[in-house]
Amino acid sequence: MTAMSQNGPPPTVDDGPTTALLDITSTALRDVLDVARLDRHANFFSLGGNSLLAVRVAGRLSRALGRRVPPTAVLDHPTAQALAGHLAVVPDPAAPGAPGAPAPGDTPGTTTGSTADAHRYPLSAAQRRVWLLHEVDPDRLDHLVTVSFEVTGSFDPIVARTAWLRVAGRHEALRTRFEAPDQDGAEPHQVVEHESLTEWSFLDTVRLPEAVRSRVVEERVRLLHRTPLPLRVGPLCRVALLRTAPSRFRLELVVHHILCDGWSLTILVADFLAAYRRVTTGEPEPGPRPHRFADHVRWERETESSRWPGLADRVARRFEDRPEPLPLPVDPVPVDEHADGDDVSVPLPGALGALVARAGTEGGHTRLTLALAALAVLLRRVSGADDLVVAVPVAGRVRAEDEGTVGLFVNTALARMRLDGVRDAHGLVALARKEVAEVLDCQTYPFDQLVSRLGAPRDGTRMPLARVSLAVQDFADAPPPDPALGFRWAERDPAERQSKMDLAFSLTGGGNGIEGQALTVTYRPSLFRRPTVLAWAEQYLLALGHVARAVTGGAS
Fold it and tell me: Residue 520 and residue 413: Cα distance in Å, rounded?
């Protein structure tokens, strides 16, 4: 990885290209960081930059320049001036014959070929993996993406249902079902219907006795979260509104993962609130989004997949000599595989969140880099291993037009932390930074293809190649309801009921500033006891603090 170059002028280049590139890099950084004015020497990290925002900046630069710009270019050159200088002299990866170059006539952010049928089109690489797992076990529950709200105030069930139907009209994912191949060798397809495929239900429990009401509500929610969604006929989305008091409701949303990832949920919730407001005020709807998930699938198949053979060789070399599965200390007990999931959540103290933010600003490190370094400390301590493979969910939204689209973009990449020879926290963070760069640059390479390339055994109940995962949520949560709507809500976090990882660490709340950050560890109750996992979560936060202090000049 190249050294960061924000402390000096970029290499000398012609004035024309430098001026033009400076305008392009400044515009991309200003738009993504959402600042009105941007000094050309302003630091990306000081302005709140993170790995996810680096991907978004790189996507805009790729479209503007007609060539692929990797996210690491933004992370390693975190000012508009330094980034423009770097892009002026770096070889164009889209030049004919360059490794990983798009096919002739294709550039990132564009699609070529005939227009796909608007109502029937193939699955994306991420969707194919979910489809295959669903075919093996249609009753699995880890593919149900859920969100739950406690709503108080003047919340109108009729307006809410109308608003949701309008959201479904804007986003094809909420009108999609899946068809199996009609012959050997054919692919499954997704079919977009004209009408919403959402199952909407409303239950008023106010007249029930309090004890009965509580049992009815909890049983209804339990069934909602534990009932599989049928891919072929739908609906693949369920919304349940339960009135529990004259001005109190439970709002439950369940969507199949093949349609939706965490980023998509944020889009849907924000659009629902906007549609609710428009219904109450009589404002017209903005209409369907011009960019559809089908456009992403076509781009992936016709353009981005041209990079995959090169990425396959690159990733395979890193993991061909991978270690045996991580020897975690377990305490096995019999648990039904469809109920083998639970989680613990620990809020990040404000001081720790501020320390991590300072480490990012001063050291130019993303939260993902610091989080991975801290996880390596914990895993080394509890397992005794010094060669660690960690699964890292990645957003997969490398183009600007994908940012507002509902669909399954998320992919899984692998990070490998080889700790032999690492002597201090600075060396550990440097190793983590190198691995994060690999993760970001290879984030579109389908995990399923990596599993096949490495010949790893598949198990429908758990993810291959890694027992532990690390997710860092750097996108902002959906905004709360506008007070003018007359209601407010608080999100509930339903516990996981089936986990495909032995341990899944997730840092959330990073897109909303220092406050509200939390660490959630999802685990298999068949392998670990809850007090053990809670202790590991607390030890992880201690390790994160040590790592952050080390890179800000404190003791390691």
Answer: 20
